[in-house]
Amino acid sequence: MYLVIGAGLSGCVVAERIAKELNKEVHIIDRRNHVGGNIHDYVDENGVMVHTYGPHAFHTNHKQVWDYLSQFTEWKPYFHHVEGYIDGQDVPIPFNFNTIEKLFPQEYANNLIHELITEFGINKKVTILELLQNEKFKDLAQFVYEKVFLGYTQKQWDKKPEELDISVSSRVPIYTSKDDRYFQDTYQAIPEQGYTKLIENMIQSPLINVSLETDFSDIDVSQYEKIIYTGMIDEYFNYSLGKLPYRSLEFTLKTIDKPQYQNTAQKNYSSNFDFTRITEYKHFLDQNTEKTTIALEYPKAYEEGINEPYYPIPSDENHALYVQYRKLAKNEKNVIFLGRLAEYKYYNMDQIVKSALYTFEKEIYVK
Ligand SMILES: Cc1cc2nc3c(=O)[nH]c(=O)nc-3n(C[C@H](O)[C@H](O)[C@H](O)COP(=O)(O)OP(=O)(O)OC[C@H]3O[C@@H](n4cnc5c(N)ncnc54)[C@H](O)[C@@H]3O)c2cc1C
């Protein structure tokens, strides 16, 4: 029998594969009282499908991932739109030609758009770091940096941007386009009956047995032929080399007594607000409800046992510590470390599925 620690997306994909392809029994455990890990969702008292651990929009270019997940759900097409509250106006994010036209005087905006097309072409994502390197676009880069990136990033990570890994600031793009969608991936949709239902369908084989509110430390591992561990890698080793730091989030849910609160599922607040974004959940499934549910999102320090470890904090030092744990993990011959916590890495859902399918093929499936 196989043991899977964690009933999140990565653990459940591997469990499904083991049951289906190897015809073997799998025991999944999770310390939480529900399956799905961070993609868990539920219908609240307003009839709105709420994502328990923050807004999740599925998007991928991987047909294999799309086809795999489509066995377990019908989809509702959904294109994620994000607005930013900048200088008193709601504007599309990422910063694109529509944003430029909304925020700048017409002639200036037209010239800027013309120069951006000439320099970078159309439908290109150009990072603010790239813009800063070009004299012509320094003002624009500075504007986007201050109004979109700086306040948000300081709140998100409780750090100055220069203290952060370059990958964080380089991720902030402007888009040389009038396409307001947040992602341009081929496949974009939300599971019609929610992510939790998708997961439940995935693990419904009689060979799969789930124990909730069960911690890895409560388990006698001797009865299992292999363990797939999707929890925190430092916790597995009792933090023997030190703790890998995380950033956490707090969501304040509010019922608003009208059908709609904002135009898009997500609205970002850069400066002057202590929350980073407001999510209005009904947009994801285009639900028709009398009241609406919103979540204000506050970044927080991660405190063990008090809140959730959401984001690994990117820095050379933290990565080096992770690499040390990874070396220890290599000696655990019967354990596979998989997922965002075990790999100390931010993964989108499609990347998690891809990686879990790959791990099954390479490390578990024996013909
Ligand atoms: C705020 C936020 C928004 C996101 N939005 C998107 C998005 O829009 N689109 C997208 O593609 N991705 C998004 N993601 C990423 C997505 O949430 C992850 O890719 C996915 O949830 C990772 O799955 P996982 O199985 O690796 O981890 P998890 O979902 O964290 O599952 C791990 C499970 O293991 C359990 N566990 C850990 N240790 C133990 C233990 N010792 N004993 C028992 N159980 C244990 C945990 O309780 C947890 O349920 C977002 C992430 C965050 C934080």
TrEMBL record:
Keywords: FAD, Flavoprotein, Isomerase. It comes from Vibrio gazogenes. NCBIfam families: UDP-GALP_mutase. The keyword Endoplasmic reticulum does not apply. Gene3D superfamilies: NAD(P)-binding Rossmann-like Domain. This is UDP-galactopyranose mutase. It comes from the Bacteria. GO terms for cellular component: cytosol.
